């Protein structure tokens, strides 16, 4: 089975300007490509797990999201760190007035997207890493059984009762990924 580096999108891959859905507003977070190079070098698949409630809220469409996602993936390929897959949840339990306004098992903190990736990509979650900037990211990883969870401190609230490695930046997360990769090699 493969191991994966699961990445939240907004706040980890790109600066979270709020409901980013156009490449003109998509600014990469400093260090994201270096972090991904370390992961790929150590045989981690790159998988994006992202809530996209802007779809439920009517701010943009699934087509808009997919166009931006293809552009983002091209940018990673240009830097020799291809993303294996992107999983997204278009739902919101209380906001919106369309078919995406619903409770679901894919919206983080639920682990549905992670389990889908696990099944489709043949991922060993115990050997995998999840990096997010919100407690709901870390809860989803915890709910899926991923032990290597990294919370990049951000503007969002923290809950110290949630177990995760904490760092102030994606560059700090890079150091943790390097350490996890070394441990993974030792216990193979």
Would you spell out the secondary-structure blueprint of this structure?
Layout: E1 3-7, H1 32-41, E2 44-51, H2 53-56, H3 62-78, E3 85-89, H4 112-121, E4 129-132, H5 135-144, E5 148-152, E6 165-167, H6 170-186
Parallel strand pairs: 1-2, 1-4, 2-3, 4-5, 5-6
Helix pairs in contact: 1-6
Explain this structure to me?
The chain is α/β, with parallel strands linked by helices and 188 residues long. The chain has a single domain, classed as Rossmann fold (3-Layer(aba) Sandwich), CATH 3.40.50.1000. 36% of the residues lie in helices and 16% in strands. Strands 3-2-1-4-5-6 form a six-stranded parallel sheet, sandwiched between helices. Helix 1 packs parallel to helix 6. It is globular and about 45 Å long. The chain starts with a strand and ends with a helix. The mean pLDDT is 94.
């Amino acid at each position: 089975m493969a191991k994966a580096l699961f990445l939240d999108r907004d706040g980890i891959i790109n600066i979270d300007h709020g409901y980013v859905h156009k490449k003109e507003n998509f600014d990469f977070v400093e260090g994201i490509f270096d972090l991904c190079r370390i992961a790929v070098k150590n045989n981690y698949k790159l998988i994006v797990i992202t809530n996209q409630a802007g779809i439920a809220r009517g701010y943009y469409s699934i087509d808009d999201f997919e166009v931006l996602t293809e552009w983002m993936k091209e940018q990673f390929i240009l830097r020799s760190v291809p993303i294996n897959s992107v999983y997204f949840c278009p739902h919101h339990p209380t906001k919106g007035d369309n078919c995406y306004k619903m409770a679901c098992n894919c919206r983080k903190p639920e682990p549905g997207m992670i389990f889908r990736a696990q099944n489709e990509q043949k991922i060993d979650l115990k050997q995998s890493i999840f990096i997010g900037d919100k407690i709901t990211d870390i809860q989803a990883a915890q709910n899926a059984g991923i032990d290597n969870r990294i919370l990049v401190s951000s503007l969002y609230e923290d809950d110290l009762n949630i177990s995760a490695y904490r760092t102030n930046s994606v560059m700090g997360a890079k150091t943790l990924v390097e350490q996890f990769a070394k441990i993974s090699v030792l216990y193979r």
